[in-house]
Specification:
By secondary structure, the protein is an alpha/beta fold. Helices cover 36% and strands 23% of the residues. The longest helix is centred in the C-terminal third of the chain and has 20 residues.
């Protein structure tokens, strides 16, 4: 079977993980092109890839439409500013390219739905990069839930206690804006919110949130708290901040049930801190022994298996683990939280067509 040809579109902060993932999957995939408005950034990613795999022909572009016209590409990975994801993804899929899109897939319900519809219409795969789902402890937790080891699920918590100073936002002025990013919930917290909803049953009934902008001079929130009532009765609690002094403190996912408790922490939700069940404790010794160390960054270990899953999904004509419908779920919770912040009221699902742009002026109104 011939190797799938990939292009990386957007060569900023996260894109080195795409290079790493393609190099690790070099038996089945090859990086054929890189594209960024700043040519030096694209050249840097090209050099990183060649350094990892040896001699390779990687074309460099500053115009992705020209790249798709001139290069025979199978899969485009999108790592641009969040607000541009839908336009770029839809263009690529209309040109019959499979797409891996960084989180969040979109900043509005309509754009997310349009991306999902476009993938179906063109019979191409759409994968959203919630790579922490592939962390080994997360997979083990998911298996425990599917085996009903918790009994009745009661509640789950996602805590993202991080520091992002003004230098972080000034480095890329699109960060923290309603048009292109959203705040702490949409940018920093969405991975853990995705994990929380995946574990708790996914189907949301009601969301209520309190958010504010305390310390950072940005449009969107630097702190947010969400209470989620799931349709199965369980309750999710999210605490997300960019204001922890003086540095990142923790990112943890905790699930509590009638017959079990699991807490996963580590640098990138990658380490079991508590694993305690009423029954079959003999099975748990091996799980606890199989722990791995922390990754080098908060981006974690998951991009390599996520790319592998997408490659397999294309070659075997199946859905990727995190397709458009799955990628929309965490994003929808955050948009509901923003709507709740705007109205001061709980938000019932489905939330309708809501966008981060509906939040424009919220800071100005408050002050």
């Amino acid at each position: 079977m011939s190797k799938l040809k990939f292009a990386i579109l957007g060569c900023g902060r996260i894109s080195y993980k795409h290079v790493e993932a393609l190099a690790a999957n070099k038996e089945e995939a090859v990086l054929a092109a890189v594209c960024d408005l700043v040519e030096e950034k694209a050249e840097k990613r090209k050099s990183e890839y060649i350094e990892k795999v040896g001699d390779a022909e990687v074309a460099v572009y500053t115009d992705y439409k020209k790249m798709l016209k001139e290069q025979d590409i199978d899969v485009v990975t999108i790592a641009t500013e969040s607000g541009y994801h839908p336009e770029i993804a839809i263009y690529c899929m209309n040109n019959k390219k499979h797409v891996i899109c960084e989180k969040p897939m979109a900043l509005s319900i309509k754009d997310a739905d349009d991306m999902i519809d476009c993938s179906k219409k063109n019979n191409v795969k759409l994968c959203i990069s919630h790579q922490n789902r592939f962390n080994k402890p997360v997979q083990q937790l998911r298996s425990a839930i599917e085996e009903n080891r918790f009994g009745r699920l009661i509640n789950g918590t996602a805590r993202i206690l991080w520091n992002r100073n003004m230098g972080y936002y000034e480095q890329a002025p699109w960060r923290g804006t309603w048009k292109l990013d959203g705040g702490t919930l949409m940018n920093q917290c969405i991975h853990n919110i995705d994990l929380l909803q995946w574990m708790m049953g996914g189907e949301v009934d009601t969301v209520y949130a309190q958010c504010d902008t305390f310390l950072r001079d940005i449009e969107a929130e630097d702190f947010g708290a969400i209470v989620i009532r799931f349709k199965n009765g369980a309750i999710g609690i999210v605490e997300g901040t960019a204001c922890v002094y003086p540095k990142n403190l923790e990112e943890t996912l905790s699930i509590f049930g009638e017959k079990g408790t699991v807490c996963i922490g580590g640098l990138a939700v990658n380490k079991i801190e508590t694993w305690d069940f009423e029954k079959h404790k003999d099975l748990d010794d091996e799980i606890l022994k199989s722990q791995q160390g922390d990754p080098d960054t908060v981006y974690g270990f998951g991009h390599i298996p996520l790319f592998k899953d997408m490659i397999d999904a294309i070659n075997n004509n199946r859905k990727p683990l995190i397709d458009g419908e799955e990628g929309k779920k965490g994003m929808s919770i955050i948009l509901a939280a923003y709507k709740s912040r705007l109205t001061g009221m709980p938000v019932k699902f489905p939330i309708g067509d809501f966008s981060t742009m509906d939040m424009v002026g919220v800071k100005k109104i408050k002050k």
